[in-house]
Structure formats: C-alpha cells, structure tokens
Design a protein that fits this description.
Helix content: 55-70%
Distance between the termini: 83 Å
Radius of gyration: 33 Å
Shape: elongated
C-alpha cells in the first residue's frame, strides 16, 4: 500500500502528469474545482472587408436603384386593387406580372447605373 501512495504522490507532484489527468477528466465530463478560463470574444467581423473598394463603390451606387424598385407606382397599385377579385390561379399570374414589372423597371436603371459595363 505504501508503494501505491508513493506513486500517487509522485504523480501529484509532476505538473505534466496533473495536466494530463485534468484533460482526461474534462474529456470524461468530470469538472474540477479549477475555474475554466473565460473564452475570449471573437473580434466583430466587418462584412464589407470581403469586397474590394471598387466593388463597394458599385454596390453603393446600386443601392438607390434597388430601393427604388420596391416603391409603388400606378401599375403596382392597379395590380393590388385587382387582387381581391381574382381566383387563386389568376392571383399567381398577377404575382408573376408584378415581378416582371419590377424587373422591367430595374433594367433601364441598371443599364444607366453601369452594371452592364462590368460584363
């Protein structure tokens, strides 16, 4: 029994052996009295850093164009007024027509905005 106690004392005095025992205990889900260090928060990521400056300039120029597409005009108000009087099948066609109007409205704006110059 003395040999066993000597072996335990030897392991307890070795810092590397104690580190291995702690890591084994953590793997097994055994928490010790040692407080775990607080994880450092990750620095906030800036998604704009992913794009080169010239791309950012073009995206900035396109923002007003894209926001203008969602504004109502006489055509979209007419389609919205017709919607309650249509069957489900025709409501689907109306939604398709509404999307086509948005694309038709965007195309000249995008052309003048220089988007097609990229290709």
């Amino acid at each position: 029994m003395d040999n066993f106690q000597d072996k335990i004392a030897e392991i307890m005095s070795d810092p590397e052996a104690m580190k291995e025992i702690r890591s084994l205990g953590k793997m097994l889900g055994l928490g010790g009295n040692d407080p775990e260090p607080e994880p450092k928060p990750a620095p906030p990521a800036n998604p704009l850093n992913m794009f080169p400056p010239e791309t950012l300039g073009k995206l900035t120029a396109l923002m007003p164009i894209i926001s203008g597409a969602s504004q109502e005009d006489d055509s979209t108000r007419l389609l919205a007024a017709l919607r309650p009087f249509l069957s489900e099948e025709r409501k689907k066609k109306l939604e398709t027509a509404k999307k086509m109007l948005i694309v038709m409205k965007l195309l000249p704006l995008l052309k003048n905005g220089g988007l097609f110059d990229l290709f």
